[in-house]
Amino acid sequence: MRLTRFTDYGLRTLIYLALRPDALASIAEIAAAYRISESHMTKVIFALGQAGLIDTLRGRNGGLRLAHPAVQIGLGQVVRATEPELALVECQAGGECAIDGCCRLRSIMDEATAALLGVLDRYTVADVAGPGSQALLRRLGLPETVPD
Q1: How far apart are CA 90 and CA 13, in angstroms?
Q2: Which end of the chain is more exposed for a tag (fewer CB within 10 A), N or C?
Q3: Under a CB-based contact definition with an 8 Å cutoff, are residues 129 and 136 in contact?
Q4: What's the pTM?
Q5: What is the pLDDT of residues 56-94, one digit of tens each?
Q6: CA distance between the termini of the chain
Q7: Digit-coded pLDDT (tens) for 110-128
Q8: Would you tell me how many other CB atoms lie within 10 Å of the CB of residue 1?
Q9: Residue 17 CB-density burial (10 A; 0-12 exposed, 13-18 middle, 19+ buried)
Q10: Residue 118 to residues 30, 44, 66, Cα–Cα distance (Å)
């Protein structure tokens, strides 16, 4: 299983914003830090805003910020909000299957998906972007102050 780039970029965006809890960021700034196109980043930002994970402030002094403290944003929550389909096999997604009803594959894959999300639910954006993230700050070209 592989998460989509969309989810990857969503997680990266939240990490970036968590590293700057007292500042607003722009789409251009985040896109440049990760070397991602601004147009793709705009779509990611829109989805994160729709999911209630970030606040978008319009206007001259506008920008982006986390909608909640990083410690309250679970990685599983982000994946659920950004992944269009978490099914590992087609039958999980409601596809037609010649052995549907007598095969245990669907229930096993459902269990595997639940296990993955269970692990992600144990971690928050703060776990990724919290104390000890000086190397991350340097890599992104941000001042080396880490949120509490």
Answers
A1: 30
A2: C
A3: yes
A4: 0.86
A5: 998 888 899 999 999 999 999 999 999 988 877 777 666
A6: 33
A7: 899 999 999 999 999 999 9
A8: 9
A9: buried
A10: 29, 24, 23
Q: Crossing angle of helices 27-34/38-50, nearest 10°?
A: 120
Q: Residue 28 forms beta bridges with which residues?
A: none
Half-sphere exposure of 39 (CA within 13 A, CB side): 0
Q: What is the largest CA-CA distance in the chain?
A: 60
Amino acid at 140: L
Total Cβ atoms within 10 A of residue 38: 14
Q: Which two tokens mark 9?
A: 């970029």
How many CB atoms sit inside 10 A of residue 20's CB?
22
Tokens of 73: 């944003």
